[in-house]
Write a structure and sequence with these properties.
Elements lengths: L15 H9 L13 H9 L8 H8 L1 H10 L7 E4 L2 H11 L3 E5 L9 E4 L5 H7 L6 E5 L5 E9 L5 E3 L3 E6 L2 E7 L6 H17 L4 E10 L2 E8 L9 H4 L4 H9 L12 E8 L5 H5 L4 E5 L9 E9 L2 H14 L3
Antiparallel strand pairs: 1-4, 2-3, 2-4, 5-6, 5-7, 5-9, 7-8, 8-11, 9-10, 11-13, 12-13
Helix pairs in contact: 2-3, 3-4
The structure holds adenosine-5'-triphosphate and magnesium ion (MG).
The site of magnesium ion (MG) has 3 residues, from β10.
Length: 330
């Protein structure tokens, strides 16, 4: 999709010449996918290019073990977890973490791929086989959360930091389906806690740009699931729903410009279009909707676009959401 808006260089992600070619005409290099090899980001840094968010942030977010360890070291609560370097370690990990648990590949997972739920010890070997016996794994306690939330923040080069309100997210088959902002019945104490948690990460990583932190709410606690060093799907609502969108503030931050205000306009929901393209006319017939399509080929399970639904209050949003859900055939 980005080819539509800039010079398009085609090359492998570890093709040094192609990377330097792209960077040669850029003031700053940024990314919107944490699958970019850290070595590629470092090669650009070493060649004197500014890369934001930094390679250090990219590296932490690429490895679930490094990520959860970083969270824990910063005093951010996480589900119990254990490293699984070998088959024997898997059984010991299950003892330590407890079951049910989720076995995940340490690297490369997205949209719930590379994960298996394990309910009983008898399922451990099959779970490991399903993920491939050579991939490094992590076992995580399965959390019966009240709901899933995410917090997005942006930090400028001078340390100025802004937050958007906590977002409530629902997933199906490991894929984000809907986000609502602000999260319904959001308590100020919960917002303050989430801001404190993400601030620890922003400061620890000397972070520049937008950072997303995915959280599980359990009572009054927030457990950190993972972070994304980039603009995030659960922040797409900010295009229509915030004074400054996550995209604009990310660019402002990485370019060293002042950040924009992050006040929310009314209440907003975001629905992902997954697998099939929606019927634009029926979606847009509902008041308050905005349709964004990414120009991708339809494929099962692929995020092809999203619908933002804006409203003045929760009641109006619920009614519009019901109409959009029907228009999308969900
Ligand atoms: P994405 O790229 O979509 O954020 P991902 O593939 O990187 O996802 P996770 O965010 O770790 O993987 O997991 C996807 C979803 O699976 C979570 O949003 C949550 O619904 C569920 N999940 C993951 N870990 C746990 C856990 N420890 N306990 C309960 N549910 C979990
Ligand atoms: Mg996730």
């Amino acid at each position: 999709p980005a080819a539509a808006v800039g010079r398009h260089v085609i090359g492998a992600l570890d093709d040094r010449e192609a990377l330097l070619d792209v960077a040669s005409s850029a003031e700053v290099v940024t990314y919107e996918w944490e699958g970019v090899p850290a070595s590629a980001a470092r090669a650009l840094e070493d060649a004197g290019h500014r890369v934001e968010p930094s390679t250090a942030a990219l590296e932490v977010s690429q490895d679930r073990l490094a990520e959860k360890t970083t969270f824990r070291n910063l005093g951010i609560d996480v589900p119990e977890f254990a490293d699984v370097p070998t088959l024997e370690a898997l059984h010991a990990a299950a003892e330590a973490v407890g079951l049910p648990a989720i076995l995940k590949t340490r690297r490369g997972g997205y949209d719930g791929k590379g994960q298996v739920l394990v309910r009983a010890a008898s399922e451990l070997d099959a779970a490991r086989a399903a993920l491939g016996t050579s991939a490094p794994l992590i076992l995580e306690q399965h959390i019966s959360f009240d709901r899933e939330l995410s917090i997005l923040a942006v930090r400028a080069r001078d340390g100025d930091t802004r937050f958007w309100p906590l977002v409530q997210n629902t997933h199906r088959d490991g894929i984000l389906r809907t986000s609502r902002a602000p999260a319904p019945r959001l308590e100020p104490a919960m917002q303050a806690l989430a801001e404190a948690l993400i601030t620890k990460l922003l400061e620890q990583l000397a972070y520049v740009g937008v950072l997303a932190l995915e959280l599980f709410q359990v009572g009054h606690r927030l457990l950190a699931n993972e972070m994304a060093p980039r603009v995030h799907n659960s922040g797409h609502w900010t295009i229509e729903g915030s004074t400054t969108s996550q995209f604009e503030n990310h660019l402002r931050a990485v370019l060293g410009l002042p950040l924009g205000r992050t006040d929310t306009r009314g209440v907003v929901a975001m629905l992902n279009c997954i697998g099939d393209l929606p019927d634009a006319a029926s979606v847009l017939a509902v008041e308050g909707t905005h349709l964004h399509l990414y120009g991708k080929e339809p494929r099962p399970g692929r995020k092809l676009g999203h619908v933002a639904v804006t409203a003045q209050d929760v009641e109006q949003l619920d009614s519009r959401l019901a109409q959009v859900t029907e228009a999308l055939g969900l």
